[in-house]
Design goal:
Largest interface: B-C, 80 and 66 residues
Mean pLDDT of chain C: 84
Order of helices and strands of chain A: HEHEHEHEHH
CATH superfamily of one domain in chain C: NADH:ubiquinone oxidoreductase Nqo5 subunit
Number of domains of chain A: 1
Structural class of chain A: alpha/beta
Radius of gyration of chain C: 22 Å
Helix content of chain C: 10-25%
CATH class of one domain in chain C: Alpha Beta
Number of helices of chain A: 6
CATH class of chain A: Alpha Beta
Helix content of chain A: 25-40%
Shape of chain C: globular
Strand order of the largest sheet of chain C: 1-2-5-4-3
CATH architecture of chain A: 3-Layer(aba) Sandwich
Largest sheet of chain C: 5 strands, mixed
Number of helices of chain C: 6
Strand order of the largest sheet of chain A: 1-2-3-4
CATH architecture of one domain in chain C: 2-Layer Sandwich
Strand content of chain A: 5-15%
Strand content of chain C: 15-25%
Order of helices and strands of chain C: HEEHEEEEHEHHH
Oligomer: heterotrimer
Number of strands of chain A: 4
Low-confidence stretches of chain A: 200-208
CATH topology of chain A: Rossmann fold
Chain lengths: 208, 434, 231
């Protein structure tokens, strides 16, 4: 009864030794500034969003002012994977392989409704969101997003890049789902959890 | 109607004695004309195995997610096997679960370069199925929409074709012109690319006031860009050298392979759906259909370029003849009643409810309406069983049938020619894979 | 030297230049003259002729389709040289058979004709291919097979075109195939990711490249028995 003594687990330590020094923060700033302002995109453009991406890269909206005019179609030379367009299941291993071929540091932007959630294509053929295949940093909604929308998403990504710290050890680790970890959810449990929202086996949606 | 066809002539060398395409060498000191000389004797490729290389599905120059597997003898293509389906999204299946007005949103996304043209095509097909005659104003607006979308699609084709050959600047010029059309469309229907501008029985919205001035401004300034691009490309020796004599299809082959649109017309067959099976009163507009005589990539470029000019001509006539009057038909069972009536009269409210919740129901039957899309003969085949959702919605994709001919066209050409030939077909994977 | 004479569409057509059709009747419009010619030439194969919204639909017996289409292509008074589409329709009513539909155009005569053949559900869905008449049938028939499971006899390379070859859920456009597929989303994703994108060369492609000879013995045996590596 009453207050119990605080255990070690509940105390967060803010000792000076745990913080970064001045040099480390300046280095972080420099590296992040360089990365954010020269993100080389890998346009994984499939459908209509790819046309809006091309319009964003063209003269009127001009991605070159953000340092992104050099489209690298080889994933090995790219920083950002911009998935512009719908991804069907046949294309799923391709985008996964492209993501694996990109070297760290890498980020990804899911452009458009179809890349983010499957969009208007809730059917047998389309992946319901590329975040089921690759990790996504920024989702840009729209069908297709206006060039200003995509630029807003790119600016958000730049903010995210600038807030990274070299001291965060785990940021740039590649994660494969480890079946033995507690983060892994087996497929049968996924089906069970998703059941109230309807899936193809039960077709509980209202016949749409 | 005046001249039916415009023969586009160019003295090409075509094929040489060995049956290989002749190359036009870079201009040296001729100063004026094109120096068409036979290239020096072609060395036979060194004896060796054939190489199998894979282009795509992720590739900058495949115009979408297309995969080409090429068997190469040195650098010459011996065989080409295309693989498609990487953008298959089940359009036709989902069309069976949507009302006719809802399907219009899907027609934007399949050929996304010609989105408003697809909306028009689908609305025409649905109106044939319903047995509706649309108003005169709607017809002219749809002609304006179709021609604007033809210009948009050809500009993307031009830009990306130039990039594939190596010229980057026309891409920027083309996209700048497209931004003007985007602004016009945005004022009209609210969206740039995925317009969903038509409805069964009319249009989603009438043009706002002042829109026609914007259109006339575009018509006035667009030919200058065309002249600029023409100056830079058409007689350019590098351009001619990279495109002449490639991917030749004879007229009989082209018809048998089911090619349509500029691919077919470049081979000398003057089939244009607007002239041969007209719709939207196209027979009353005065325009020419360019027809090539060589069937190669250069002729396809010339045909599409000329089509851009003809589209401007049609736009001018349409802008001059736009009649006043209602845009939508007056049938409340099919098209939404005006909001003022729907909120005040009971009957209109019921009609509004029925049209939105259930959707208009056509009689039992089927219809196939084909339009001339920038890619070719685009058709929507719809079968109705009397309910609000079609039994079958089939898209006849011109790029699908055009692309099937690529193994025939690239045989015997070099690897870099494969890219040029692929670009000249003007494919849209969204339409091919649906 | 490739220089072709311009082939004018409608060179054999008679009458006034074509105009936009207006006020087309639902049924019983003017049929295409080819329908009458077909009924005279193939009286037993033609089941019936309908005119729906101005378009002539000829129902042909499934076993005579190839002969009929061959005649339509070759005969000088018909000359249907352009195959616009090959597709199929399955109705929601389970009793109604599946229809295979061909859209033919005669460019010299400016005519459009729809040929339909009915295949009973429950029997093997097979019909003759028109690949030898029209090369455009190549991919169109492959797509019809992919979406409906209809086999085209005589097609040189009938395999799936839009879905991947080991797609196990079935034929998507059939009415008994649910909109979202038969498997759950996670299972669909797992099957899709299980394809190895790099091992996607088919038997045909490997044999071209002479890589076949360099494969290990057991793999060659498995491949020649028909196992697929990928596409």
């Amino acid at each position: 009864m009453g207050l119990s003594a605080p255990s070690d687990r509940d105390v967060v330590s803010y000792t000076p030794e745990g913080q970064e020094g001045w040099v480390a923060t300046r280095l972080d700033f420099l590296v992040n500034w360089a990365r954010a302002n020269s993100l080389w995109p890998m346009p994984f453009g499939t459908a209509c969003c790819a046309i809006e991406f091309m319009a964003t890269a063209a003269s009127d909206f001009d991605l070159a002012r953000f340092g992104m005019e050099r489209m690298s179609f080889s994933p090995r030379q790219a920083d950002v994977l911009i998935c512009a367009g719908r991804v069907p299941f046949k294309l799923a291993p391709i985008i996964r392989r492209i993501w694996q071929q990109m070297p760290q540091p890498k980020w990804s932007i899911s452009m458009g409704a179809c890349a983010s959630t499957g969009g208007m294509f809730d059917n047998y053929a389309v992946v319901q969101g590329i975040d089921t295949i690759i990790p996504v940093d920024v989702y840009v909604p729209g069908c297709p997003p206006r060039p200003e929308g995509l630029i807003y998403g790119i600016r958000m990504l730049q903010e995210k890049v600038k807030n990274e710290r070299a001291a965060d050890k785990g940021t740039r680790d590649e994660m494969e789902p480890d079946p033995s970890s507690q983060l892994y959810i087996p497929p049968s449990l996924i089906d069970e959890l998703g059941e109230p929202f309807g899936n193809s086996v039960n077709q509980t949606r209202s016949g749409l | 109607m005046t001249r039916r066809t415009v023969n586009v002539e160019l003295s090409t060398t075509g094929l040489d004695a060995q049956g290989r395409p002749q190359r036009v060498p870079i201009l040296t000191d001729d100063g004026g004309g094109l120096a068409l000389q036979a290239p020096p004797g072609i060395e036979p490729d060194l004896e060796g195995e054939h190489m199998l290389i894979n282009i795509g599905p992720q590739h900058p120059a495949t115009h979408g997610v297309l995969r080409l597997v090429l068997e190469l003898d040195g650098e010459t293509v011996v065989r080409c096997i295309p693989h498609i389906g990487y953008l298959h999204c089940g359009f036709e299946k989902i069309g069976e679960y949507r009302q006719y007005n809802q399907i219009i949103c899907w027609t934007d996304r399949e050929d996304y370069l010609n989105s408003i043209g697809n909306n028009v095509a689908f609305a025409l097909g649905a109106e044939r199925l319903f047995g509706i005659e649309i108003t005169e104003r709607c017809k002219v607006l749809r002609v304006i929409a179709s021609e604007l979308s033809r210009i948009m699609s050809h500009l993307v084709w031009l830009g990306t074709f130039c990039i594939d050959i190596g010229a980057f600047t026309p891409f920027l010029w083309a996209f700048q012109r497209r931004e003007e059309i985007y602004r016009l469309l945005e004022k009209w229907v609210g969206a740039r690319l995925t317009t969903s501008a038509t409805r069964v029985g009319g249009m989603a919205a009438d043009i706002p006031s002042g829109w026609m001035d914007g259109l006339r401004q575009f018509i006035r300034t667009f030919p200058h860009t065309l002249d600029e691009i023409d100056r830079v490309l058409t007689k350019n020796a590098i351009w001619v050298g990279r495109t002449v004599g490639l991917g030749v299809m004879t007229p009989e082959e082209a018809v048998n392979w089911g090619l349509s649109g500029p691919m077919l017309r470049a081979s000398g067959v003057d089939y244009d759906v607007r002239k041969d099976f007209p719709y939207l009163d196209y027979e009353t507009y005065d325009f020419d259909v360019p027809v090539g005589t060589n069937g190669d990539v250069y002729d396809r470029y010339l045909v599409r370029f000329e089509e851009l000019k003809q589209s401007v001509r049609i736009l001018q006539q349409a802008a001059d003849r736009l009649p006043d009057g209602p845009v939508n038909i007056d049938d409340p069972r099919i098209i939404l009643p005006p909001k003022s009536k729907a909120t005040s009269e009971m009957e209109s409210m019921i009609h509004h409810f029925k049209v939105v919740m259930e959707g208009p129901r056509p009689p039992i039957g089927e219809s196939y309406v084909a339009v001339e899309s920038p890619k070719g003969e685009k058709g929507y085949y719809m079968v109705s069983d009397g309910t609000a959702k079609p039994v079958r919605w089939r898209i006849r994709p011109p790029s699908f049938v055009n692309l099937a001919a690529i193994p025939k066209m690239v045989e015997g050409h070099l690897l870099s020619d494969v890219i040029a030939i692929n670009a000249s077909i003007d494919i849209v994977m969204g339409e091919i894979d649906r | 030297m490739s220089r072709f004479e311009v082939v004018k569409t409608g060179s054999s057509a008679s009458g006034a230049p074509p105009t936009t059709q207006k006020n087309v009747p639902h049924r019983n419009g003017e049929p295409n003259p080819s329908a009458k010619a077909l009924q005279e030439k193939f009286p037993s194969a033609i089941e019936r002729v309908e005119v729906v919204w101005g378009e002539t639909v000829v129902f042909v017996d499934a076993w005579s389709v190839h002969e009929v289409i061959r005649w339509l292509h070759d005969d000088e008074s018909q000359r249907y040289d352009f195959l616009s589409d090959v597709t199929a329709v399955e109705y929601r009513d389970a009793e109604v058979p599946i229809e295979v539909v061909w859209h033919l155009r005669s460019l010299p005569f400016r005519r459009f004709l729809r040929i339909k053949a009915q295949l009973q559900k429950g029997t093997a869905l097979e019909i003759e291919s028109v690949y030898d008449i029209y090369r455009s049938a190549d991919w169109l028939e492959r797509e019809c097979f992919d979406m409906f499971g209809i086999r085209f006899r005589g097609h040189p390379d009938l395999r799936r075109i839009l879905m991947w070859e080991q797609y196990r859920e079935g034929y998507p456009l059939r009415k008994d195939f649910p909109l979202r597929g038969r498997f759950s989303r996670s299972e669909q994703l797992r099957q899709a990711l299980a394809q190895n994108p790099e091992a996607r060369y088919s038997m045909e492609e490997l044999s071209i490249a002479d890589a076949f000879a360099e494969l290990p013995e057991d793999m060659r045996e498995r491949l020649s028995k028909g196992e697929r590596t990928g596409e």
